[in-house]
Amino acid sequence: MMAKQKMNINELYAATGKILVEKGYAGFHFKLVSDQLNVSRSTIYEYFSNKDELIASLMVHLMDTIMAEYEGLDAISVPMEKLRKIFDSFMKYAHLHQILLFAPFVNGESSPSVQKDLVTLRQQHHTLTSVLTEVIDSCKEAGSIRQDLPSSLIASLLFQAIQIPKSRTTPEAEWNDMIFQVLLDGYGLKDRHNVAIS
User: Fold this and answer.
1) Which of 23, 107, 26 is nearest to 35 (CA)?
2) Could you read off the pLDDT of 9-46 as tens digits, one per residue?
């Protein structure tokens, strides 16, 4: 009997994410993965029955990675410092969020494991959103963020920052700091009310 061909699951996840970003959900096939990893398609099928199982499993894995960043938040006492840590983690894992955008395309009816993973993914997203909203509310109570703006709007703006392309000339840390400051303070001059708008 031929021995089962082993495969590194992290390498499989990495290849899957790369191909998803390059080809999209419709263009993703096990053959592309097998060619990149130099394994047979039957080897991949020993781990996942279809592409939806693989993609859903990858997304749960990515969310686990992202959410691990928030384990130390309770040790930070200043709300604005907490918010900055969350923002920095968003920017750090921006490439992972790009993959998670394909979640609506995954067919939840393809297998029970896909259904389970999608439920887990929704729970993780709810937890992530709740943590972010709570920190924003704490910043409002501390007087460091405007209270007249809905926390959901602020959360959406922070999350959408991952779509801003990285600068080729400015160091990443400095670039992220500028984005955060623009989100926090705006980009208008403090005396802009005295400037005529044509």
Assistant:
1) 23
2) 999 999 999 999 999 999 999 999 999 999 999 999 99
